[in-house]
Write a structure and sequence with these properties.
91 residues; mainly beta; six-stranded antiparallel sheet; 6 strands; 12% helix; 52% strand
């Protein structure tokens, strides 16, 4: 279940399961946005997405990072990426 902590100026953050996330959403679909079907860059509303969890000593460990294109983590965490993109993009 998507648990949103705050939503302001196109920025949203919260938790989904054991994972935390923060994202920047655009008002409409853009060419650099994360596509909800392919999970690659192109025709989406999510311009930035970070998925994280707490490490053993309480530090934040970033698992996946999208910033107008994937930086890392898409394949390793495909299940949570897919669930989160579908929840954020309203699909």
């Amino acid at each position: 279940m998507l648990n949103r902590r705050f939503e302001q100026d196109g920025v949203i953050a919260g938790h989904i399961g054991h994972y935390g996330f923060d994202a920047r959403l655009t008002q409409g679909r853009v060419s650099y946005g994360l596509n909800h079907r392919t999970l690659y860059k192109g025709d989406g509303r999510i311009a930035q997405l970070r998925i994280w969890r707490f490490g053993r000593s309480g530090e934040i460990v970033t698992l996946a990072l999208y910033d107008r294109g994937w930086r890392f983590g898409r394949i390793e965490h495909l299940g949570i990426v897919r669930r989160l993109v579908q929840a954020l993009d309203g699909r």
